[in-house]
Every structure is written in C-alpha cells, then in structure tokens.
C-alpha cells in the first residue's frame, strides 16, 4: 500500500520536536528523496513552526493523542512514526497500539522502564506477526550505550575472534544541561513506582526488559554511591541514565540469543577522576543523582528550580558548544582488554538526541534492515545501518582507543 510519507514527526511543536524538524529540513529538505510531515493537535502552532523553520511547504497533519480516529488517520499515511511526546507512559499507549495494528514502524525517546515493559508485554508478539519495528530509546538514552556495545563486540570479534565477557561504560566528559523531558519522565516513573508494586518490581530487576523466562544473570542494580574502579583506576559515581541504558543493552543481548554468553556482564557509571578531586566530584555526583530519583527528598525540592521544565532547553549556542564522551572497556574471558570511545558533537539532552532520533526514523524508513520485528532496541532493530548513519550524519563517532 502506497504511503504519502516516509516519516511523520509527532510532537513537532515541542522543544525537541522542533529540533528534529529543523534537522530533517536541513539534512533532507522537503519534497525530495525523503517525504516527511509534521503533526500535532494545534494547527496554528504547527504553522508557526513552519514559519520559524522558513519553509511553508512542510506538510502538516492535525491529530489528537486522545482522539483514536484522527491518530489512526495520521498513522495510516506514513511508513514511520517518530514521536517526541512524553512522558510516554502518559501519552504513548494508543500511538504504539495503532502503529502495531497498522504495521507502521515507530521510534521514540522514552527512558521509562515501566512503560517499555508494558509495551513489550502488550505488543511484542503482535508486532512480530505484523512485521513491525517498535523502537524505544532512540536518543542519548540509549543509542550510545546500545550501539557502543555493538561496535565494541564487533572489534572484539575482529581482534580476538571472541566476544568480551564483561563491558563497562563510563561517562568521562559531558557539557550540556539535562533535558526537562527527562526530568519529567523520571518524576513520572518514581510516582508510578510509589503507587504500584509491579512498577517497583520492574525497577528492582536489572533484567526487567529481557523476555520473560530470560531475566537471570550476574548483573546487580545500578551503582548508587561513590566507588573506586580498579579497571579505570579512578573514582566513579552513579550515572543517571544507567538504569535504562543497561536494561536496553541486556535486552539487545537477549533478543540476539545471548551471543556473548549468559554470564555476560554490563554496567555504567560516571567517571570522576583520580585522587581527592575525583573522590569529591564523585560524592557530589552521587548526592545529586540519588536526589533525582527521589521526588520527595529535601534536596530534590532544593534543586527543582534549577532544572528545566518539559519543553524548555538550552540555547542554540549551548547546544552547539555541548558534547559528551563515553569510554567502553571490554574484557575477554582470558583477560584481554579493548576500549572504545563514543563521542557526540552536541549537548546530549537535545542537540545530539534530536539528530539520533531523526536518523533512526530515516533508517527505519529507508534502509535495508535486519528481519527483526517486535518491541526492539536500536541495535536489534537497525544494527549496522544505524551505526553508519550516526557516524555519517548525526555527529556520533565510535572509535577504538589505543592503550
């Protein structure tokens, strides 16, 4: 069946949605090889976005997330729905359901573990039957982690003809503020966990995104305090995105049939450096990270005024000056080590995330991809094709580090 569009961008009037639209226009133009449209419920706001982008020819679709008929009409017109409308646990259920029933691929920026578990339980099987790819976590959580492990294991195969049995990711450098949407989603997850023991159980299980019956392994829950890392010879602290990233990496591994072995181990943390300075930075990072996960804490209330609201974010200059670096260390069963650097050329929360999401959508619409379907991860849905796009277009580089 012919589709009018390759991609429909749902949520184009929000802060991140505007950045995705800006990127698609700059990178692919309109009415050319990529057919795309912006969608939302407010026509005047969509028109304003077109004016701000300097292009009145971008097609618009009016739909409402609470109106099934209008949302269904939108989904039927496209090969891929790319959505920035969160928290997804509040606004995403119907859209995922319609994409699955219509056989339309889908990508988003969610980091909400409990909602992902729900979409897996409700839609994975039918999405497989309908040959549909539902791909969560297509931003800074969790593409650098998921594709970083993919890249590292590819290098391990080349060098060792074996896979790394343990991988550690350390966020080593970052410049750019946290996303207001991320903060809102975190708050929403914690609120749900307080009310629902099943949600808390999902958060308490490091393997909770794995298929049912495949949720055992050697990994512990995420780091919550300052620790010395002997492998990196430095102090480390909690990494606020570790809970979602690590579960996505484990789901990729499980969906691929555990190629690295069922005893494969993976963890993430923030690298803060050596000596007393490294220790002090780790202590501060630990306090702030733990406060973010406790909406009722005194410290969270104290830092709330300094956190961005959903839909608000850094200036263009701050985004362009932002960047991040992550180092992954892989170790083989016989003690061989290799390290990989993942480097993003914009602030992680918005500049880099918007480019990664846009390229994920284009990848789903245009590229020859693995014959994998269901509720997937970036790695299992798109594999090598996504890696190439990230490096060529999205300013995310993966490289082998020489010791």
UniProtKB/TrEMBL annotation:
One of its GO terms (cellular component) is plasma membrane. GO terms for molecular function: saccharopine dehydrogenase (NAD+, L-lysine-forming) activity. Keywords: Oxidoreductase. The keyword Oxidoreductase applies. It comes from Microscilla marina ATCC 23134. InterPro entries: NAD(P)-bd_dom_sf, Saccharopine_DH-like_oxidrdct, Sacchrp_dh_NADP-bd. Its EC number is 1.5.1.7. The keyword Oxidoreductase applies. This is Saccharopine dehydrogenase. Gene3D superfamilies: NAD(P)-binding Rossmann-like Domain. Residues 7-132 form the Saccharopine dehydrogenase NADP binding domain. Pfam families: Sacchrp_dh_NADP. Belongs to the saccharopine dehydrogenase family. Enoyl reductase subfamily. GO terms for biological process: glycolipid biosynthetic process.
């Amino acid at each position: 069946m012919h589709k009018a569009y390759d991609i429909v961008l749902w949520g184009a009037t929000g802060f991140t949605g505007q950045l995705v639209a800006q990127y698609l226009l700059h990178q692919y133009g309109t009415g050319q090889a990529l057919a795309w449209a912006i969608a939302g419920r407010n026509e005047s706001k969509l028109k304003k976005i077109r004016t701000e982008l300097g292009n009145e020819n971008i097609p618009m679709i009016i739909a409402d997330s609470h109106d099934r008929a209008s949302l269904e009409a939108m989904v039927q017109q496209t090969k891929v729905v790319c959505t920035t409308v969160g928290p997804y646990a509040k606004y995403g259920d119907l859209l995922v359901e319609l994409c699955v029933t219509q056989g339309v691929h889908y990508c988003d920026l969610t980091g909400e573990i409990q909602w992902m578990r729900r979409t897996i339980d409700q839609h994975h099987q039918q999405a497989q039957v309908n040959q549909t790819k539902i791909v969560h976590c297509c931003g800074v959580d969790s593409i650098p982690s998921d594709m970083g492990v993919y890249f590292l294991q590819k290098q391990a195969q080349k060098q060792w003809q074996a896979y790394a049995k343990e991988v550690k990711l350390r966020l080593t450098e970052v410049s750019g503020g946290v996303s207001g949407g991320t903060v809102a989603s975190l708050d929403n997850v914690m609120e749900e966990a307080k009310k629902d023991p099943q949600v808390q159980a999902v958060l308490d299980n490091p393997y909770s995104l794995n298929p049912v019956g495949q949720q055992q392994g050697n990994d512990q829950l995420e780091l919550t305090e300052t620790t010395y890392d002997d492998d990196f010879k430095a102090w480390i602290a909690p990494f606020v995105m570790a809970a979602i990233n690590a579960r996505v990496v484990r789901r990729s591994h499980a969906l691929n049939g555990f190629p690295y072995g069922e005893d494969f181990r993976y963890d993430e943390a923030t690298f803060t450096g050596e000596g007393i300075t490294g220790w002090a930075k780790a202590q501060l990072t630990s306090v702030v990270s733990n406060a973010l996960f406790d909406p009722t804490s005194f410290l969270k209330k104290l830092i709330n005024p300094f956190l961005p609201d959903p839909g608000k974010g850094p200036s263009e200059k701050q985004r362009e000056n932002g960047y991040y670096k992550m180092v992954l260390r892989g170790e083989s069963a016989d003690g061989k080590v290799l390290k990989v650097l993942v480097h993003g050329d914009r602030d992680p929360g918005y500049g880099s995330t918007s480019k990664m999401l846009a390229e994920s959508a284009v990848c789903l619409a245009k590229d020859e991809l693995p014959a994998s379907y269901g509720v997937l991860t970036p790695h299992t849905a798109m594999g090598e094709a996504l890696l190439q796009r990230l490096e060529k277009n999205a300013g995310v580089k993966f490289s082998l580090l020489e010791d």
